[in-house]
């Protein structure tokens, strides 16, 4: 898997979009801007507008750089074997993180999180797509359901990701639907509950499979 500038150029343009938008609105922003909301979309944090410069860096840019580097430092070399599937996963995650970043910057400019359910919709979309990709992710140390037992056994890894893929896909669809139907307060709770259930279920399942294998 070699660096291909022609293939990577669209992603590089995408991760720069938040900075282009930030440059466009910079002169209209007050010196102190809102930077945090609670689950209900209520403002509960303010900062100097210069902190906004770090937001794209810590979201879309960092995501892209990590996805770019880890195939080369993966000791097993499994991620390189994914080929185009790895690139498509990287593209989706980077596009999603960029969309979230742009939405936050837009909300900061408007001084209001107009529809918090938009974020919960994007989280549901993330879960659904990850679930669809889990069965294709090779046994590695960086991406996927990484527990001591999945990392120890390739069989446990495969079976855990088969179950995890189904659960993440179903959970993602549920969160997408609830983001369209329920209040932000309820959806913030649902995201926490669904995430907790997913973590406990996949971790517990990998442990049980490992014990059975032993």
TrEMBL record:
Keywords: Membrane, Transmembrane, Transmembrane helix. It comes from the Bacteria. Residues 13-59 form the DUF1648 domain. This is SdpI family protein. It holds the Pfam family SdpI. PANTHER family: IMMUNITY PROTEIN SDPI. The chain crosses the membrane at residues 9-27, 53-74, 86-106, 118-134, 167-184, 190-210.
């Amino acid at each position: 898997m070699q660096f291909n500038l022609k293939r990577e150029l669209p992603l590089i343009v995408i991760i720069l979009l938040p900075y282009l938008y930030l440059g466009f609105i910079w002169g209209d922003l007050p010196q102190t801007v809102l930077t945090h909301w609670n689950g209900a979309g209520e403002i509960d944090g303010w900062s100097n507008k210069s902190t906004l410069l770090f937001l794209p860096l810590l979201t879309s840019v960092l995501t892209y750089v990590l996805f770019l580097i880890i195939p080369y430092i993966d000791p097993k070399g499994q991620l390189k074997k994914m080929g185009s599937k790895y690139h498509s996963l990287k593209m989706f995650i980077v596009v999603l993180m960029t969309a979230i970043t742009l939405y936050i910057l837009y909300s900061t400019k408007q001084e209001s999180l107009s529809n918090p359910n938009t974020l919960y919709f994007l989280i549901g979309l993330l879960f659904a797509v990850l679930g669809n990709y889990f069965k294709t992710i090779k046994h590695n140390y960086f991406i996927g359901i990484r527990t001591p037992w999945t990392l120890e056994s390739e069989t446990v890894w495969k079976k855990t990701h088969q179950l995890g893929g189904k659960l993440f896909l179903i959970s993602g669809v549920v969160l997408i639907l609830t983001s369209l139907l329920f209040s932000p307060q309820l959806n913030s709770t649902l995201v926490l509950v669904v995430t907790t259930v997913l973590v406990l279920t996949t971790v517990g399942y990998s442990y049980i499979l490992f014990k059975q294998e032993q």
